[in-house]
Predict the 3D structure of the following.
Amino acid sequence: MAPLAAQPDPGTLAGLYRQMLLIRRFEETVYYLFLEGEIPGTLHQYQGQEAVAVGICDVLRPTDWITSTHRPHGHALAKGVTARAAMAELFGKSTGCCAGKGGSMHLGDPAVGMLPAIAIVGGGNTVVTGLGLAFALRRSDQVAVCFFGEGASNEGAFHEGMNFAAVRRLPIVFVCENNLYGASTRFDAVSALVDVADRAAAYGIPGRVVDGMDVLAIREAGSLAVASARAGDGPTLLECKTYRFVGHSRSDARGYRAADEEAAWKSRDPIPRLRASLVEQASLGLEAVEAIESEVETTIADAVEFARASPDADPREALTDVYA
């Protein structure tokens, strides 16, 4: 049995707030940069879901690894990719975390334990089994985490990856970010199950539903699941009920969602929820919180200037690091 998660101290709480705010400000900034034509391609943004990436990655070690999706900005920043490296990647610059070759849907950096994101729905659910198998064969105490959306739970890769991980008792945590919609399709229109977590029972592993708008609840559940995996007890499926405040991608006007639904979820925004708690704490207070907010603004502004000043990716490098 994994030990109970320790209650976070004020410094940890401040760090959680900073990381969530960094992701939110990053996303808000790149939204306008994209509209102004500075960022090529498209964007799949993470506003509203910050608590999931931050809560999970906060309990991981630098040597642990994650896989991500077509919506990877939050995962990348939470796992340790710098704002500079992420921003430069979105700009297609050589100083980006993938040397400008990946762009928005393929952020990542092996140096911080993040496989460059896989944009195929469910793609990471089998790749993560390779990571977990490698850790098991090496007898290391590393853990692999797979972030995916609820839509991926209807893909064959989800079931194949989870079955293999369960049978081999691999050190993996499967983290489903259930934001209710696969693009514009509601999950309840394509699944007879209400909770993705119930699917864990078919593979004999624990499944748990978590409030995806509460970073502390996610951190606690993640801590227990990671500890269990690290101890050799096999994988866990965590389903984080969350909500993206923006469209599926930049071309999505969200006409399929009701205004009252959006308002209800925004009232549970994880960032102001934690901020209110921090302001009330004697060990932190308003002044400390405002200092964090000022530092985040400076970090984002610096990242934009860094990206703008960086050289474009060199077309002659297009085939470098290509193995197949």
Notes: Residues 10-35 form the longest helix (26 residues). The mean pLDDT is 94. The longest strand covers residues 172-178. The chain is about 40% helix and 10% strand.
